[in-house]
Write a structure and sequence with these properties.
Blueprint lengths: L1 H23 L19 H18 L12 H13 L13 E3 L8 E12 L5 E10 L4 E3 L1 H12 L2 E2 L1 H16 L4 E9 H4 L10 E6 L6 H12 L2
Parallel strand pairs: 2-5
Antiparallel strand pairs: 1-4, 2-3, 3-6, 6-7
Bound molecules: zinc ion (ZN).
């Protein structure tokens, strides 16, 4: 009986480890960020207080002296940074307001916004993902302000992410905002969890792309990619 229990425990642990390895390999998750239905029952201030307490515990457990001048403000600083900055995009209330304008110039060629600075966080390790996003669309009836393209990228970046999901979320939001299927998104990013730990690879980077509508055709996709090469 005892032996069986031990065996079961070992198997459970192995399953868990396999699962964690799969996470380490950044397998694709579902398109929506997995949020609980009560995700926003607490106010930002309540969240900051709770996270501050937990982060204090983490630092204490690591053996750090929280009475030290340099460290004592860190738990609160981290909590505020999580809620107000780097995970600000979890809350739908913080979604950028996108106003659509009539395409009165009748511009129907490709519009490319390239090298959009992207700071995100790996949801498996909670360390930064740093990169660039390039987005493009072919206007139909509507256009949006150029800076809104950056804001859409930033909104989806500012949450715990996997790069594949972030790419799809941005593409879907662009389709919605622009009322067209003709959008492209390409993200090139460095994952600090790959560079500074684990395999410690400082030279590799990760590229993901989504092409929809006309961008599924070689001609449009190649035009988009050629714009990215011209620097
Ligand atoms: Zn990671």
């Amino acid at each position: 009986m005892k032996l069986n229990e031990t065996l079961l425990n070992i198997m459970d642990n192995q399953d868990l480890e396999n699962e964690q390895e799969a996470m380490d390999d950044h397998m694709m998750s579902a398109l929506d960020t997995p949020l609980r239905s009560d995700a926003f029952d607490l106010t930002d201030q309540e969240k900051i207080s709770i996270i501050e307490g937990h982060f204090k515990e983490i630092m204490h457990t690591l053996g750090l002296d929280l009475t030290d001048d340099s460290l004592k403000g860190t738990p609160r600083r981290v909590a505020k940074m999580y809620v107000k900055e780097i995970f600000h995009g979890l809350n739908p209330e913080n979604k950028p307001d996108i106003r659509r304008f009539e395409n009165k110039y009748k511009y129907h060629r490709m519009l490319v916004e390239r090298d959009i600075t992207l700071y995100s966080s790996c949801e498996h390790h909670f360390v930064p993902i740093i990169g660039k996003a390039h987005v493009a669309y072919i206007p139909g009836e509507h256009v949006i302000g150029l800076s809104k393209l950056n804001r859409i990228v930033q909104y989806y970046a500012r949450r715990p992410q996997v790069q594949e999901r972030m790419t799809m979320q941005i593409a879907n939001e662009l389709k919605q905002a622009l009322q067209t299927e003709d959008v492209a998104v390409l993200i090139e990013a460095d994952h600090l969890c790959v560079m500074s730990r684990g395999v410690n690879d400082v030279t590799s980077s990760t590229i993901t792309a989504e092409y929809s509508g006309l961008f599924q055709e070689d001609q449009y996709r190649n035009e988009f990619l050629s714009h990215l090469r011209k620097k």
